[in-house]
Design brief:
Blueprint: H1 3-6, H2 17-25, E1 33-38, H3 44-63, E2 72-79, H4 82-87, H5 89-96, E3 103-105, E4 110-113, E5 117-123, H6 127-131, E6 140-143, H7 151-159, E7 164-165, E8 168-169, E9 173-178, H8 184-191, E10 197-202, H9 213-223, H10 228-236, H11 251-258, E11 269-273, E12 283-289, E13 292-299, H12 304-317, E14 323-326, H13 331-340, E15 345-348, H14 363-376, H15 387-393, E16 398-401, E17 404-407, H16 410-416, H17 423-436, H18 446-456
Parallel strand pairs: 1-9, 1-10, 2-5, 2-6, 6-9, 11-14, 14-15
Antiparallel strand pairs: 3-4, 4-5, 7-8, 11-12, 12-13, 16-17
Length: about 450
């Protein structure tokens, strides 16, 4: 039972129904982690601070009978960026947790409860600090705005949940509070829930502590009336409906591509390949007919000879069609080998300059952004739904650097995918680029250009 139920004389916060659901879920003997997430303004940080205080007080009461000169570290509370934690979550703690209930010192702050236990705080943006989790032993973790974190950030934190006091193991509990976003939280808690991991939806109407709630809701409606899916996420906590404002390709556009009856048939064939460069990456080889994937071969990390032979074989079986190949890293060897064996190759160097240098940061940004535009304008048709391709297509985000569009770095995407590289999506985007943009300006020989014209009718 939580402390507020066993200590009637102690100060008690007033919880909303959803906050109570999250609180009691964390008291279950089965549940180890709760994602309390959803709408903006749902009182998530307020709830997290109160939960952390009462949990640590309860640990002190049950496991540490006497005051200690050196309190036992039992918990961690933080955000991805330390500076933001200090400005937001820690400020919420100081405003709402009575000052006579704890002592605080240091930077990053250490919070002592009942002179017996200690809460460490901070950010996950300092690798040295994160590495300290390897030797840490905690029983409680609260991460605010957890949608900012990467899978790597939380792996070491989960491993730190191994606290024993006086030979008694303290059952671990984790609270993640978050706004909707396409990230590892959605995959762990919503797409693949387990009895140990529970999702509780937060709504702004639950937040009885917010002044001017009606004005806040009106502001959200006015700001996002052009993006109904954002309103569904921010006001109703619908993670499945959420499409980020910086998301390149939206889920609903992919749905439209699978139901596109207005698409003009294009039977021109092209092979696309993104050779793997790292241990766990895959090497997808797609046979594309127009914008559709007619056939595919997925290899692990393979030698240039094996990849090239697979491309050559697929090309021969499909009328000696051309191939677009990522030429960075081992891809250069695949390009050379395929050309030696008679395949017409279009090189794709993602770091190369775009033809529209004033608009796109590099060729990769150009290819992804133009594919996004084609999806939004219903110029894409897909016939066989593929979960892996869909998941990878909706992950990348874009930003602006020096006024030019830049697509999220592949290594950052890989972190948000939990270690998986977006190889399928990159391969497919290359195929779209080669089909619609690369013809005639890729340095092909006359013979190669004639072959492309023959297959695509240009």
């Amino acid at each position: 039972m939580p402390l507020i139920a066993t200590q009637p004389a102690i100060w008690k916060p007033e919880l909303s129904r959803k906050q109570s659901d999250a609180w009691w879920a964390l008291q279950s003997d089965v549940v180890e982690e709760v994602l309390y997430g959803g709408a903006k303004g749902g009182g998530k940080s307020w709830f997290g601070c109160h939960w952390m205080y009462f949990e640590c007080y309860e640990i002190a009461r049950r496991y540490v009978p006497e005051s200690r000169r050196h309190p036992i570290p039992v918990a961690f509370m933080g955000r991805k960026v330390a500076k933001r934690f200090k400005e937001t979550t820690l400020d919420t703690w100081k405003r709402f947790i009575p000052a006579d209930r704890y002592s605080i010192k240091g930077d990053p702050a250490e919070i002592t409860i009942a002179d017996r236990v200690l809460i460490r705080t901070g950010g996950l943006d300092d690798r040295d600090d994160v590495e300290k989790f390897n030797s840490a032993e905690f029983a409680r973790i609260f991460i605010d705005q957890a949608e900012e974190t990467m899978k790597d950030d939380i792996s070491v934190m989960r491993a730190s949940l191994r606290l024993t006091i006086g030979g008694r193991r303290v059952p671990p509990k984790v609270l993640w509070t978050a706004n909707p976003r396409q990230c590892w939280l959605k995959e762990d808690f919503i797409d693949n829930p387990t009895p140990e991991r529970v999702f509780i939806k937060a709504l702004p109407t639950d937040n009885t502590k917010m002044d001017g709630l009606d004005a806040y809701l009106k502001k959200l409606n006015d700001a996002f009336k052009h993006r109904p899916e954002l309103l569904a996420a921010y006001l109703e906590g619908k993670w499945d409906a959420f499409e980020g404002g910086d998301q390149l390709i939206l889920n609903r556009w992919i749905d439209d591509a699978y139901n596109n009856e207005t698409y003009i048939a294009d039977t021109g064939k092209l092979i696309s390949c993104d050779p793997s460069r790292f241990g766990d990456d895959e090497t997808p080889i797609f046979l594309m007919e127009g914008t559709d994937i007619a056939d595919k071969l997925i290899l692990g990390k393979a030698s240039t000879v094996v990849v090239a032979d697979a491309i050559v074989d697929m090309s021969r079986r499909n009328g000696h069609c051309p191939a677009v190949i990522d030429s960075i890293g081992i891809g250069a060897g695949v390009v050379d080998s395929c050309r030696e064996k008679g395949v017409s190759v279009i090189e794709f160097n993602s770091a190369a300059a775009s033809q529209e240098k004033e608009k796109y940061y590099n060729l990769r940004a150009e290819a992804w952004f133009k594919a996004s535009k084609d999806f939004s304008e219903h110029k894409i048709r897909l016939t066989l739904p593929n979960t892996t391709l869909r998941k990878q297509l909706v992950i990348p985000t874009y930003s602006f650097r020096n006024g030019r569009i830049l697509v999220e770095d592949k290594k950052d995407i890989k972190k948000r995918l939990g270690g998986s590289s977006p190889d399928w999506a990159d391969c497919y985007i290359m195929g779209l680029w080669a089909r619609s943009e690369a013809m005639g300006r890729t340095g092909l020989t006359v013979q190669q250009w004639r072959e492309l014209k023959k297959h695509y009718g240009y």
